[in-house]
Amino acid sequence: MKLKKCTKCKNNAIIELKYCGLNLCKNCFIRFFGKRVAKTIKENKYLENANKIAVALSGGKDSLVVLYLLKKLIKRKISLVAISIDGGIKGYDDKLLKNARKICKDLKIEHHVYSFKKELGYDVNDIAKAASNPCVCGVFRRYILNKKARELKADKIATGHNLNDEAESVLMNIIRGDVARIARGEGLVKNEKFVQRIKPLQKCPENEVMFFAKLIFPKYNFSHQCPYRKDVLRADIKKMLKELDEKHDGLLFQISEGNKRIRESLLKTIDIKGVPNDCINCGELTSGETCNACELNDRIKKFLNK
Questions:
Q1: Is the predicted pLDDT of residue 40 greater than 80, yes or no?
Q2: Parallel, antiparallel, or unpaired: how do β-strands 156-158 and 110-115 relate?
């Protein structure tokens, strides 16, 4: 099979991006990917009013790429720290933490590791025994992440959410009829207890993030799969979107842009003021009286103390 030539430099291409009609060689793809992330950061003003950015570093491909590019792209004096959360899943969290520790050592990034066991008193394996849906650890990860980033005096938290993640969330919000979440979107929660999230990879398809990660980190292992993330709605939506995107080039971008238009329309009729309430138990932010973390925590503790 004859190799296609790079659209930009005429060297042999190693990747084809059908949705934009580009065939790119290694160097041109790395530049293309980096420029797109830089543009996302600039358009969303992610670096404005930031003296310290905490990167949510799981050790997976997405978070490693975010940390690497932020370190490379930030020109002015903004400090970077990495926060990793150990859920206690053997064969998963420990392997991801190995990646996280390695990149922080290589890039000379301050690294903070927190565990479910120490912060909550139990780990994800305990949650799996107590919860009908074991894939709820994200609630606790976000809870710990926000709390620790605030303690570290970070102005913003950078996450590794890619285009696929964003499209999946759009469909999940629509299925659940979560109008408030669709309208609220990103950046509209203004509260001193909430550390603003930024998503530098939100315009990057997952397969391209993986491709970039393998080029930049050839010695890292990205094959880790959470054993508890099988029979959940997001996994089914992920599979469906992957199949549809293979048939319809650019579908994920269309979903993302369509969601923006829906949000703009909703904001004309819905008054979104962010998250106004303090949880009556822990004092963290919530849209109701009790935050999701405390509600889950109460159910899990009751089960484990039976």
A1: yes
A2: unpaired
The residues with which 54 forms a beta bridge, in sequence order, are 81, 157
Taking Cα atoms as reference points, which of 149, 59, 145, 158 lies closest to residue 103?
59
For 265, list phi and psi in degrees, rounded to 5: -70, -40
Distances (CA, A) of 21 to 24, 30, 78: 10, 17, 36
Q: How far apart are CA 45 and CA 132, in angstroms?
A: 40
CB atoms within 10 A of CB 93: 24
Per-residue pLDDT tens digits for 65-102 = 999 999 999 987 899 999 999 999 888 999 999 999 99
Distances (CA, A) of 91 to 70, 130, 145, 160, 235: 28, 21, 22, 21, 20
Residues 6+ apart with CB under 8 A from 176: none
Among 191, 196, 158, 165, CA closest to 40:
158
Kindly compute the dihedral angle of the four CA atoms of residues 69, 22, 43, 246, in this order, to the nearest 10 degrees: -90
Specify the fold of 44-220+234-274: Rossmann fold (3.40.50)
